[in-house]
Each structure stands twice: as C-alpha cells, then as structure tokens.
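Rotation project, supervised by the postdoc (A.L.). Task for the rotation student: set up a whole-complex structure prediction and record inputs and outputs verbatim in this book. Inputs entered:
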Amino acid sequence: MKRLSHVMGAAALVALIGACSGRGGQDDRERGAESDQVTALAEPKQALSEELMLALSLAKNYHHKADVYLQQASPADAIDQVRQILTIDFPSDTYEGEDVMLDARARLAKLLVTQGAIDEAMQVVEEGIASTSRRSFFVANLHTVRGEVFEARAVSLDESDAEAAKEARHEAIRAFDRAIEIEKALLSDLAEKGAQ
Amino acid sequence: MSRDNHKDDESRASAAERAQAEGFGRLVDDLLAGVPPPPAMDPDQRALVETATVVVASNRIALLDESRVGRLVDEALEAAVIGGSDPSDAPVPEPAIAEISHGTHSVTDVKVRRRRGDRYARALPWVVASVAAAAAIVAYIASAGDRHTSPTEASRPPAIQLTVHNTSRPADPLIGRIARADADHARERVDILFADRMSGYRDLTLRRGLVEDKQ
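Outputs recorded:
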C-alpha cells in the first residue's frame, strides 16, 4: 500500500512537470515560428501594414494637392501642403517612411528656394540629411538639392559678397560630389544583388 | 399411610437431597463466576446445571469489573474520534497500555494520538499525489486556456509565409537613381511607391483571408 502511494505521488509529480514543460515547449514553438519568419526575411523589417499604407496614401494626397496649388500659381499653399507630409506619423522602422520624408524635404526645399527662402530651404535639407539611417537614392537626391540650394545662395551673393558666393559654390560642388558618391555605391550594390 | 404424612414426606428434604442441592448450587455459582465445569458429569446433571445457569444469569444484572468497563469505554471513544474500524488497526497489546497508563495521559489520549499519527502518515503520500495531480490538471487547463484565449494571439494575424513583396523595404530598387532634373518630382515617386506597396499589401491581405477561411 505504501509503495503504491509513493508510485502515485511520483506519477503525479511527473505529470505536473510534464504539463509545465509542455507549456514551455509551446512558448518555444511560438518563438521558433517568429524566429523562422525573421530568418526567412533577413532584409525586410516587417510586413506591410494598414498603417503604413495609410501614411503613404496621406503623403501621396498632400503631394497632389501641392500640384494643384502650383497649377493655380499658389506656391505658398503648395509649400504648406508639402510641410504637412513632414508631420505624418509613419510606423517606426519602415523604410518607406524615411524615403518619403526625405523626398518631401527635397521638394519642399526646392519650393522654398523658388520663393527666395534659401536659409529655410537649407535648414530643411540639413535636418533631412541628419535624420538618415542608411544610404539611399533619396539621401543622394537630398544632397543634390543641398547643392542646388548652395547654388542659389551663391547667385544671391554674387553682387554683394563675391567671396561668400565662391565659398557657396564650393559647398555646392561638395554636395553634388556626395550625392554622386552615394549613387555610385548604391548602383554597385544593386548590380551585385542583380548578379546574385 | 395417611395423606398428611405423605405431604410431610414430600416437603421435607432428606440430608442426602440437601447435600446434593448444595453441591448443585455451588456448581452453578462456579459456572457463573467463570470456573469451568468438572470434566466428568452425568449428562442429566450437566443439562440441569446449564439450564440453571441460564435462568440465574437472565434474572440478575450482569456487573463487569472496572478494567473491562474501562476497555470498552476506550474502544467506544476511539471509534468515535478516529472513525470506522480498519483491519490494520490492530489493538495495542495490553502490556503497552499498562505501561502508558502509568503516565500523566490517559490510555485513550495516548492511543488516539498514536493512531491519528499513523493515519496521517499513511494518508500523506496520497495527499501529496492528489495535490500534485490537481496542480498538473490546473497547469494543463491554464496552458490550454492560454493557447485558445491569449489576447496577443487573438490579435495576431494568422501566420502565413511572407515574401519580400509583402514587406517594408527600401524604395531604391523600385525608384532607381533620381536625376537632378527630377529632384522635386516627389509626387510621381510616391505614386509609384504607393502602387507597388499596395500590390504587396493586397496580396498579403488576400492570403491572410484565405488562411482565416481555412481555419
């Protein structure tokens, strides 16, 4: 009788441990499924989401509104619309969010230059470049726009300050060179991936 | 012989008869006191003695000695305190009881405690087994509940095989190098980007819907 009760106790304890370990096993399987997903998708960060699509749609519509204002010869209103894009809350860590923001800054800076707001245009570009997390054609484009802003500054200084105008042109060339450098590196990377 | 003389003869016992009656009475008294009857007896006399013993016993109150009374009370109390009888509850030998009874506790207390301890010792493995089994069942049910009702899992979309087309990724391969003349053509680029990502998102949504339908 005593032996039977000991056996019963041991069996119950084994069952308890089994239930607990079974639960842990389930957690492991869930983690494994997630890790498999990450392994299968080494480069992409996450699945496309409704939030991302809504943010992209917002950016698209602000750009279209800006186009309409430009058709109506209302550059100030167009600038306001493009500024709105910079306030969009893209899902964190999405590549598209960073690309669209940099592109919007490029357009905004060029619009500001047409309105003579060179310093503000330069600030928009500098902030954009400082916010980048990786190389991209959009970063290269922003460097290109930065060069154009320096060009515009040089033209505005030609009559008043020749030396400052000359320095601005040097900065413009450096900016274009930086854009070219990035583009070459990206094209090389894409060519390598295409070859694989 | 006259009739009166005959009555006197019948009512008056002879000395032999009286001695025989006294012997018979002693025999009955001895039997009632627990003394065994003599091995050799006349069958008629034996039957007569047994009958007389039964008659005497049924006409007087049976008195038990104190030790017998105490033992019966102890047994009754044990049965009331401990419960039903168990085959393994063998009575403790008298000498042990006699030794214990010399202490400060009564025989009943000592025996009840000892039997209660024995009973707990026997029940302990079963109690442990029952508690462990109950805990195992609760753990299994809890894990099953987590599997089926976890809010994280409920809000999680069904797991499907993602392709690069369904994920967030750099727009560089789609847009390519941006010419200087197109530096401010952000609207055209976002149109292209949106259309491409919407294609991937629709594919993802459609496949998730198919998985949900299967489930």
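Student's summary: Chain A has a mean pLDDT of 84.
Supervisor addendum: Chain A touches chain B through 66 residues (CB under 8 Å).
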